[in-house]
Structure formats: structure tokens, C-alpha cells
């Protein structure tokens, strides 16, 4: 396939998959149909669209933005350049909350009955959506400082039939929760989760072009030490979470140990550990709350 060769020449990762995703998007079919209908010729409009997308792709524009879709925890999430592309590393947060609800008394069991969850820096809404989908009895509050990101998140909730389960609030970090009748009060939450911007300044130059040049900087850069948003979350979020609940914050692997130290110094925190992602990298700080 000519697209695959073009992507190989530019050194793009997974060139064959990239080509299949673009082709299936333009034709409007599942990837499997590309094989079963291999003899179907592309029409003139489809060929022109493909040429345009390939040109954008070789300039490192992410395939998820080209197709408007990304997969997260088995769900198809709509994305555009206003939001960070969901990544499998963030699924660690979802899995940890689901496990806690199922195995810890008082957290609603498998359905998360009456559990209240806040997702701060929600972006596309992927984490909030996954939790709402798998915890049918839970209530979810999702916040972001970006109105454009919240538009994407709301649209995703509507498309997935989860609009009545998630409340979206615009605002900066924990300040946004103060606009909610319950979530902003002391010990009101069962879980507070966040994938904030966390790339340190000294690592920015090494970020891949498809990320650095196309994804929103607001959702990526975490200040000089990568902790500009992580630090206040680990310090202040525990005040809002009840006994036995969790604060889960995604962090840069290089800052995991420093983040753990900050997390351990916070009042009411009875346990802190670092969770690894699907690649085995230190990725999420877990604070378990005491009385």
C-alpha cells in the first residue's frame, strides 16, 4: 500500500496500522472490511481525502486527530486538537478505582453505588466516561480549565449515553469543585482522580513532534519540575476525600519518587504508593485517606 511506504519513509510508528486506520476512516468501514472488500476501488473523493490526510500524517499530525477518534478502555472517544489524546497509561487510574469499589467495603461494590468521583483535568472526558460506564451507581464530576475541552467531553458523554451520570464544570483544578453542591466539601468525595499536565521543562525538547507540535500544550507542560499542578493536587485534594477513599494522580515517571514524598507529607494520608502503567513505568501516585 502506497500509504504504508510513505509512512515508513518518514519513520512513523506502526505505518501499516496507520494506513489502515486512515483508509477505514475515509471509506467509512471497519478495518476488517479492508480485507474482505479489498477489490473495491476508492472513488475520486476518497482518493483526494486520503492524499490530504497522508500529507498531514507525514507532517506528524496524530492519526487520532486525523480520524477524530481514539480508543480508551474499550470505548471509542472523539478527540480534536483541543484535547489530549487518551493513552493506555491512564487506564491504570480506571482499573484502580474499579478494583477499590469491588473489594473495599463501603465503596459501592461492583456498581459503585452512591460513590462520588471527581475527575480533575478531564480533557476528552475519557477517565470520567470509563468510570461512569463501569460504575453504574456512581456519580461523576468532571472539571477542566478549558471550555473547548469540556465541549468535547460533553459530546462524548452524550454519544455514549452517559450525560445523565456526569456533571461537567469549567474551572481551575480544585477551585472548579467549589461550584458543585457536594464535591467541594471536606470529605465529600470517595475518589479524586486526575491526569494533569506533568511534562517537566527539561524533558520538553525530547517530546515527539506528533505530541509537541499538535497536542495542546496546556494539557502537557507541568512547569519547571513537572509538578506545578501535581503538587497542589497531592497537597489539597486529600481534604476533599473521605476515609478509605483514594486520590490518584498521573505523573511523569521521572518525578514519581519526588511526587511520592510530597504525597506522604499531606495530612490525613495513611498510605502512599506508586502504581505502574501497562509498560511497567511508574505512572500514578495513590494516596489512601485516613480519618
Explain the layout of strands and helices:
Layout lengths: L1 H8 L5 H13 L5 H4 L7 H15 L4 H5 L1 E4 L2 E4 L12 H13 L12 E5 L5 H9 L4 E6 L2 H13 L6 E5 L18 E6 L14 H4 L17 H7 L4 E10 L5 H9 L4 E8 L5 E8 L2
Parallel strand pairs: 3-4, 3-6, 4-5, 6-7
Antiparallel strand pairs: 1-2, 7-9, 8-9
Helix pairs in contact: 1-2, 2-4, 6-7
What is shown here, in short?
By secondary structure, the protein is an alpha/beta fold. It is built from eleven helices and nine strands.
Strand order of the largest sheet: 5-4-3-6-7-9-8
* Average pLDDT for all residues: 93
What overall geometry do the principal axes of the alpha carbons give?
A: globular
The number of helical runs is 11
Amino acid at each position: 500500500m502506497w500509504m504504508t511506504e510513505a509512512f515508513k519513509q518518514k519513520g512513523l510508528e506502526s505505518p501499516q496500522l496507520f494506513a489502515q486506520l486512515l483508509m477505514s476512516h475515509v471509506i467509512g468501514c471497519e478495518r476488517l472490511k479492508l480485507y474482505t472488500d479489498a477489490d473495491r476501488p476508492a472513488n475520486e473523493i476518497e482518493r483526494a481525502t486520503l492524499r490530504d490526510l497522508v500529507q498531514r500524517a507525514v507532517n506528524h499530525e496524530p492519526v487520532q486527530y486525523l480520524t477524530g477518534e481514539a480508543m480508551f478502555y474499550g470505548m471509542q472517544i472523539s478527540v480534536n486538537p483541543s484535547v489530549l489524546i487518551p493513552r493506555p497509561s491512564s487506564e491504570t487510574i480506571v482499573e484502580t478505582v474499579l478494583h477499590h469499589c469491588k473489594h473495599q467495603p463501603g465503596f459501592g461494590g461492583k456498581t459503585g453505588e452512591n460513590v462520588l468521583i471527581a475527575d480533575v483535568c478531564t480533557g476528552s472526558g475519557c477517565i470520567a466516561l470509563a468510570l461512569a460506564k463501569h460504575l453504574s451507581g456512581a456519580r461523576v464530576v468532571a472539571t477542566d480549565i478549558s471550555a473547548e475541552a469540556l465541549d468535547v467531553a460533553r459530546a462524548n458523554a452524550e454519544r455514549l449515553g452517559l450525560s445523565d451520570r456526569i456533571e461537567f464544570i469549567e474551572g481551575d483544578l480544585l477551585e472548579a469543585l467549589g461550584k458543585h453542591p457536594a464535591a467541594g466539601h471536606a470529605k465529600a468525595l470517595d475518589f479524586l482522580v486526575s491526569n494533569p499536565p506533568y511534562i517537566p521543562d527539561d524533558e520538553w525538547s525530547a517530546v515527539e513532534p506528533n505530541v509537541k507540535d499538535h497536542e495542546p500544550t496546556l494539557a502537557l507542560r507541568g512547569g519547571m519540575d513537572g509538578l506545578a499542578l501535581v503538587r497542589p493536587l497531592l497537597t489539597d485534594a486529600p481534604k476533599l476525600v473521605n476515609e478509605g477513599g483514594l486520590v490518584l494522580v498521573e505523573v511523569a515517571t521521572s518525578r514519581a519518587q519526588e511526587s511520592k514524598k510530597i504525597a506522604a507529607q499531606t495530612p490525613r494520608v495513611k498510605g502512599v504508593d506508586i502504581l505502574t502503567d501497562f509498560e511497567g513505568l511508574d505512572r500514578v501516585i495513590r494516596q489512601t485517606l485516613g480519618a
